């Protein structure tokens, strides 16, 4: 599991740790890790395939982020790199870092003289601001970031790409675009949540001894081992009912395909059986003959361990009634797509069994009466608000999928690809996640494991793919996560 913390928490932990180690220790740990990571990178990608003779340009701001950068660049200079520091605030530059840099033979220049040096560099270190940054980059710093981007030089962000909001992943104004980010002590939300995560590049954590001083995480991201431990596995005495039956209420005369896609996802999520309820039974059976189908209302369909309601449901009276019946049940319910529009807000809030809502940004905006772009630019705040207002587990889809439930750290999905933004891919996700719910995972685990597997399926599928491909890829994905199971 990867954990991330906001600036406030990082500062508190650092404060405690700093009282227990000699002054300057943490910065030296950070700089040593940073220099080693840059050395690796220069070895692999620099024009000279190594540190000696390489050209390193450090962009140095007024705080400790600039200090880390100067100490690290001094280390590279001592190993033969030609090092230049662009000082954005010469009179406020970290004095110890600057002295070390000069002793190592580094030279300093003004921002005005920097662009040609940046264009010829093998590596640019972004030490403009770290966790002390406020708002987007100031114009002078923004110009340097642009010069590096336009010259296609490799950029390593020190702690985080300067200009992004460390605690929320929001980006207000100009920010550095890094190829790699070397972060210290713990991950920060900006490295995991878009739009800031898009600026981060490859991410590496340097241990500076902060771990014991950090509280419960504010954000977490599952990794393969976490997902493997959560995947449902049939045991000796399992039968289809014990493995869980998932009911799928989806599709309409107009959108039969949504039913097929949701059922396809559900068949791959580990439940023992899939029960389909709705008017698209013929299409479902034609593709997946193992589905149990019924044409009547959900309340007459027989027992299930979890319901999925909404994909392609349309918005007529039948759909509305089906959503109400499902919400009135005493088993976990996942509400997606049209279901989100048809569901009565109070009925969701008053449920005692778990409820998972899976809106994309547009649906989330409608639920919160907010603007879509506000949801997209401040995903963390909005997913938390939804979880609170609806007293539900909320999976907010999009470029970064987030799962929020009150009283728990928000989960960030680390898998996925923009190729998933194709019609019907959300239907597969809802079926898959509902199946995990029926198999007995908690709402939060089902949502985060569903998003994880779905995201990997998108990465495994040959592009460009149609959404039906995603369900077919799940066994392969399952196997990659849990090598003793799956394809
Ligand atoms: N604490 C620790 O134990 C450890 C911390 N470590 C390191 O310290 C970093 C945090 O250092 P920090 O607190 O000095 O803040 P930092 O991010 O360098 O920036 C501060 C200055 O930047 C300026 N500025 C602000 N916004 C700006 C903008 N938009 N555009 C341009 N400039 C802007 C503003 O200056 P102003 O001009 O307003 O006076 C402000 O004072 C952390 O990320 C990590 O790298 C490691 O060594 C490990 C141990
Ligand atoms: N830019 C993106 N990067 C990664 N994943 C994305 C992106 N855009 C959308 N997705 C994913 O694609 C799926 C789309 O779901 P949804 O919006 O419900 O589409 P549909 O309604 O057509 O099924 C979601 O899983 C979402 O997280
Ligand atoms: K930085």
From TrEMBL:
Residues the entry annotates as binding K(+): 65, 126, 162
Catalytic activity, reaction form: (6S)-NADHX + ADP = AMP + phosphate + NADH + H(+); (6R)-NADPHX = (6S)-NADPHX; (6R)-NADHX = (6S)-NADHX; (6S)-NADPHX + ADP = AMP + phosphate + NADPH + H(+)
Domain YjeF C-terminal intervals: 223-481
Xref: Gene3D superfamilies: 3.40.1190.20, YjeF N-terminal domain
Entry binding sites for AMP: 397-401, 426
Limits of the YjeF N-terminal domain: 10-216
SUPFAM superfamilies in alphabetical order: Ribokinase-like (SSF53613), YjeF N-terminal domain-like (SSF64153)
Sorted UniProt keywords: ATP-binding, Isomerase, Lyase, Metal-binding, Multifunctional enzyme, NAD, NADP, Nucleotide-binding, Potassium
EC code: 4.2.1.136, 5.1.99.6
Cofactor binding note: Binds 1 potassium ion per subunit.
Cofactor(s) of this protein: K(+); Mg(2+)
Keyword Isomerase carried by entry: yes
Chain residues that bind (6S)-NADPHX: 64-68, 130-136, 159, 258, 312, 360, 427
Family matches, as Pfam families: Carb_kinase (PF01256), YjeF_N (PF03853)
Keyword Isomerase: yes
Subunit note: Homotetramer.
Family: In the N-terminal section; belongs to the NnrE/AIBP family.
Main function: Catalyzes the epimerization of the S- and R-forms of NAD(P)HX, a damaged form of NAD(P)H that is a result of enzymatic or heat-dependent hydration. This is a prerequisite for the S-specific NAD(P)H-hydrate dehydratase to allow the repair of both epimers of NAD(P)HX. Catalyzes the dehydration of the S-form of NAD(P)HX at the expense of ADP, which is converted to AMP. Together with NAD(P)HX epimerase, which catalyzes the epimerization of the S- and R-forms, the enzyme allows the repair of both epimers of NAD(P)HX, a damaged form of NAD(P)H that is a result of enzymatic or heat-dependent hydration.
Protein name (Swiss-Prot/TrEMBL): Bifunctional NAD(P)H-hydrate repair enzyme
Species of provenance: Streptomyces humicola
Organism taxonomic ancestry: Bacteria, Bacillati, Actinomycetota, Actinomycetes, Kitasatosporales
């Amino acid at each position: 599991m990867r954990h991330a913390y906001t600036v406030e928490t990082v500062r508190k932990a650092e404060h405690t740790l700093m009282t227990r180690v000699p002054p300057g220790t943490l910065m030296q740990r950070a700089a040593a890790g940073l220099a080693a990571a840059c050395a690796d990178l220069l070895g692999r990608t620099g024009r000279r395939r190594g540190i000696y003779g390489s050209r390193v340009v450090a962009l140095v701001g007024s705080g400790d982020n600039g200090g880390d950068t100067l100490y690290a660049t001094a280390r590279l200079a001592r190993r033969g790199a030609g090092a230049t520091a662009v000082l954005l605030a010469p009179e406020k530059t970290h004095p110890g870092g600057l002295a070390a840099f000069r002793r190592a033979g580094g030279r300093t220049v003004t921002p005005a003289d920097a662009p040609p040096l940046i264009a010829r560099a093998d590596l640019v270190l972004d030490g403009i601001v770290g966790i002390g940054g406020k708002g987007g980059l100031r114009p002078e710093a923004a110009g340097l970031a642009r010069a590096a981007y336009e010259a296609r030089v490799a950029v390593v962000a020190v702690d985080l790409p300067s200009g992004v909001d460390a605690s929320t992943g929001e980006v207000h104004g100009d920010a550095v675009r890094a190829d790699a980010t070397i972060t210290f002590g713990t991950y920060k939300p900006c490295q995991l949540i878009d739009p800031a995560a898009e600026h981060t590049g490859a991410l590496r954590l340097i241990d500076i001894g902060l771990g014991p001083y950090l509280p419960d995480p504010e954000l977490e991201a599952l990794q393969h081992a976490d997902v493997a431990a959560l995947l449902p596995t049939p045991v000796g005495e399992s039968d289809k009912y014990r493995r869980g039956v998932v009911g799928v209420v989806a599709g309409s005369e107009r959108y039969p395909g949504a039913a097929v896609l949701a059922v396809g996802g559900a068949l791959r999520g580990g439940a023992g059986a899939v029960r389909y309820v709705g008017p698209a039974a013929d299409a479902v059976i034609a593709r997946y003959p193992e589905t149990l189908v019924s044409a009547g209302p959900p309340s007459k369909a027989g027992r299930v361990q979890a319901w999925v309601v909404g994909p392609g449901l349309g918005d007529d009276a039948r759909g509305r009634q089906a959503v109400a019946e499902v919400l009135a049940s005493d088993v976990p319910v996942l509400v997606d797509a049209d279901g989100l529009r048809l569901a009565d807000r109070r009925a969701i809030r008053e449920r005692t069994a778990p409820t998972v809502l899976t809106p994309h940004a547009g649906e989330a905006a409608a639920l919160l009466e907010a603007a879509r772009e506000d949801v997209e630019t401040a995903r963390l705040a909005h997913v938390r608000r939804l979880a609170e207002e609806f007293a539900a587990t909320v999976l907010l889809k999009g470029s970064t999928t987030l799962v929020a439930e009150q009283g728990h750290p928000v989960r960030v999905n680390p898998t996925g690809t923009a190729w998933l933004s194709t019609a019907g891919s959300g239907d597969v996700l809802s079926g898959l996640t509902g199946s995990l719910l029926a198999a007995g995972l908690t709402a939060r685990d089902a949502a985060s494991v569903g998003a994880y597997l779905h995201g990997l399926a998108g990465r495994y599928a040959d592009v460009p793919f149609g959404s039906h491909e995603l369900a077919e890829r799940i066994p392969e994905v399952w196997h990659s996560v849990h090598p003793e199971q799956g394809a």
